[in-house]
Amino acid sequence: MRKKIIAANWKMNMTVAETEGYLENFRTHVEPVNGVEIVIAPPFTAIAKLSELLGGSQKISLGAQNMSSEMSGAFTGEISPTMLRELFVRFVILGHSERRLIFGETDEVVNKKVHTALACGLRPIVCVGETLEERDGGREKEVLETQLRGSLAGVTPEQMLGIVIAYEPVWAIGTGRNATPEQAQDAHAHVRAVLASLTDEATAAKVRIQYGGSVKPANAATLLSQPDIDGALVGGASLEPIAFSEIVKAAVSK
Asked: What are all long-range contacts of 132-138, with beta carbons under 8 Å and residues at least 24 apart?
């Protein structure tokens, strides 16, 4: 059985000072929760502080929102995987739609980052998802397959087991809209089928696929009850510790 994984993507929010109060509050609410993997991906400026506060926690893992595909060098403004590893980061979000749409990251760029992350012992959360125009045009499955094949090119079945896929319909991110449970399940099943074609069915059956797109306490349980939805990548709702803890709790026994 695939263990649910609930990840917070704070995006460009939360100062170092705010991080300390958040974690204290959040920990109180998730202390009794077991059987769910929790990840928090703060801005780069708060990673060191959150790493210190977590102190090797077995319940909450530290994530990063992005990283360079290069190990070091003249890349102004970039953060290398070795810098993240030094701060005990375990997961890194790659190919988020905002990175693709705003910063022009292609599948090839994401693919290079995936291989670098794996080589450095980081676990990629690889994001894929279609725009509203692509969904309305009936192209969502084509788009997902193209993104998966491009972003995961050259990944072995063994490496695939260390990757989490996040399906995020672009039209549902930060809009208050979310895919219906049926739409989300259909997309997740398609993602798993593509993963099987890239590796094999046994491997694909073990890969965790998160849903992201206006996930909140009110809809989390229904989404997480779908057979191919193995967690959530949470944006806005993760900025409120009690709301995020409720989403984590919704994942228990789902």
From this structure: 132/170, 132/171, 135/169, 135/171
Burial class of residue 31 (count of CB atoms within 10 Å of its CB; 0-12, 13-18, 19+): exposed
CATH code matching the domain that covers 4-250, chosen among 3.20.20.70, 3.30.420.10, 3.20.20.140, 1.20.1090.10: 3.20.20.70
Q: Collapsing DSSP states into helix, strand and coil, what is residue 232?
A: strand
Q: Is the pTM of this model over 0.90?
A: yes
207-234 pLDDT per residue, tens: 999 999 889 999 999 999 999 999 999 9
Delimit the domains of the chain by residue range. Answer: 4-250
**Taking the chain, what is the end-to-end CA distance rounded to the nearest angstrom?**
11
Which residue numbers are catalytic? 96, 168
